[in-house]
Design a protein that fits this description.
Length: 264
């Protein structure tokens, strides 16, 4: 299902236009981005992209909103409990920018589904999933297809906003999730590429900020053979910063040609 609405609004992007230029606004309107994972990080990433006027978004998430999401997920409201994250987010994007084309996809990303999920010609992929195997599969398949990827590494358990940074995935340091992702990518023959990430250099004591009992969750029961995962502590401000930084870097990348024109 694809949502698209016409709009007669002409001035809501005026401040973006003043800062970035008319050419940049045009580039953003022509851009097509696929976002995997519309949770604590992905929800804020989509918010930033929508308000910047990105013209086409494919929003991919298998899950529905649950009460435990409300401490950190932008669109987790009492009114959205039990609803598809992808569809709720698509509605919000269109409420921000009725001229956008938004495709909500309720699907789980893994090796068997990624050819369909990545079909088309996206300008880039944003990976905001928090499960290791799907994350590696998304990055690997996008890299094989030559699609740039902006990925979120571990945001849970972090408190230090100043430790959040952005850089090449294979050069990121201080993030245990990043090490695991790189190790598994190398097994697939991927050792570099147009792969970037938001990550934290903060040292943390995981045992001090996770529940002692495991919670299988919907995703664990369905796709990890019942393997339970222990819940990690997290807060909306840090996950939100991760998501907005992903959106910011995507915007800068998409409008680079306009900035080069200004400098010429």
């Amino acid at each position: 299902m694809t949502f698209s609405l016409a709009s007669d609004e002409t001035d809501w992007q005026n401040r973006t236009r003043i800062l970035l230029s008319e050419a940049a606004v045009t580039l953003l309107a022509r851009a097509r981005i696929y976002v995997f994972g519309i949770g604590a990080v992905g929800g804020y990433a989509v918010e930033g992209l929508a308000r910047a006027g990105v013209g086409a978004l494919r929003l991919i998430d298998f899950d529905v909103f649950k009460d435990s999401n409300r401490n950190r997920q932008l669109l987790a409201l009492r009114s959205t409990m039990g609803r598809s994250k992808a569809e709720v987010t698509a509605e919000r994007v269109l409420d921000i920018n009725p001229a956008a084309t938004v495709e909500p996809v309720r699907a789980f990303a893994h090796d068997d589904t990624l050819d369909d999920l990545l079909a088309g010609t996206p300008d880039l992929v944003i990976d905001a999933v928090d499960s290791l195997n799907p994350k590696v599969a998304i990055i690997a398949r996008a890299a094989e297809k030559g699609i740039p990827v902006l990925s979120a590494l571990g945001a849970a358990t972090r408190r230090d906003a100043g430790a959040i940074t952005y850089g090449k995935l294979f050069a990121a340091s201080g993030c245990p999730l990043g090490r695991l992702v790189r190790k598994r990518l190398r097994r697939r023959g991927i050792v570099d590429g147009d792969l970037w990430c938001v990550y934290s250099r903060e040292e943390r004591d995981v045992e001090a900020v996770r529940e002692p009992e495991a919670d299988p969750g919907d995703e664990g029961r369905l796709y990890n053979s019942g393997r339970a995962r222990r819940v990690l502590g997290s807060v909306s401000t840090i996950t939100g910063m991760f998501g907005l930084r992903l959106a910011h870097e995507a915007i800068l990348r998409l409008t680079a040609a306009a900035r080069e024109g200004d400098d010429a």
